[in-house]
Amino acid sequence: MSPLAGGDVRGAARADAVALRAPTSADRGRVREITEASGVFRPDEVAIALEVFDGAVAAPGKDYRAVGAYEDDRLVGFAAFGPVPCTVATWDLYWIAVDPVLHGSGIGRTLMAHCEAAITAEGGRLVVVETSSRDDYGPTRAFYRRLRYHEHAAITDYYAPGDGLVVYTKSLAPSVNG
Ligand SMILES: CC(C)(COP(=O)(O)OP(=O)(O)OC[C@H]1O[C@@H](n2cnc3c(N)ncnc32)[C@H](O)[C@@H]1OP(=O)(O)O)[C@@H](O)C(=O)NCCC(=O)NCCS
Q1: Which residue's CA is the closest to the ligand 1 atom numbered 15?
Q2: pTM of the prediction?
Q3: Centroid of ligand 1 to alpha carbon of 178 (angstroms)
């Protein structure tokens, strides 16, 4: 796992205490616990999160990459991301979740900084994040806005009646290595 890009981790002594590394299949149970405890994901979405996680662990770098945040070797958050097929250097943040007990500690920011650094290192130029318009996703949308993601598109009733899609994007600076 490449080191975290410096300088984008603020606040939260807690976030400073977490270690980032590639997760393994031993973390699958914690991924399930964290996604279920988030309270925003339906059971079918938890299943998809696990599918993405399994893909990232089984064949890192094929379709998905994953990063885990660990406190004393216990997974407390994770993110999964990968290049979008049929695009030139557009990447998708497929999943991010932090143990709700630790929300607001800077762990999500730390994970996102890692993802963006890894995407930049692989030549990615645009990050796309899809989320929901539901009220209970208000904190999630605030999180993306805080990390300078811009609301780019929205589709009403996309996930379900009353549950629209909101698409956020962020352009990444080109890597110093070109
Ligand atoms: C979204 C999520 C990953 C954020 O992780 P987190 O560790 O709580 O976020 P952080 O503590 O790193 O916060 C980063 C920034 O976002 C802001 N932020 C986080 N939660 C916020 C909220 N509820 N309201 C307003 N701003 C918020 C913080 O103030 C912080 O800004 P700062 O560093 O300038 O102070 C976490 O809340 C989560 O797991 N949510 C449930 C799952 C989910 O919605 N996943 C995304 C699906 S699309």
Answers
A1: 143
A2: 0.92
A3: 31
Going from N- to C-terminal start, the domains of the chain cover 13-123
**Residue 133 amino acid letter:** S
Do the Cβ atoms of 165 and 133 come closer than 8 Å? yes
Which of 143, 145, 146 for mutating ligand 1's site (highest number of atoms within 8 Å of CB)?
A: 143
For every residue of 60-108, DSSP letters joined together read TTSS-EEEEEEETTEEEEEEEEEEPTTSSSEEEEEEEEE-GGGTTSSHH
pLDDT, residue 177, reads 55
> What CATH number belongs to 13-123?
3.40.630.30
Atom number in ligand 1 closest to CA 111: 12
pLDDT value at residue 173: 81
Low-confidence ranges of the chain (pLDDT < 50): 1-11, 178
Determine the atom of ligand 1 nearest the C-alpha atom of 129: 48
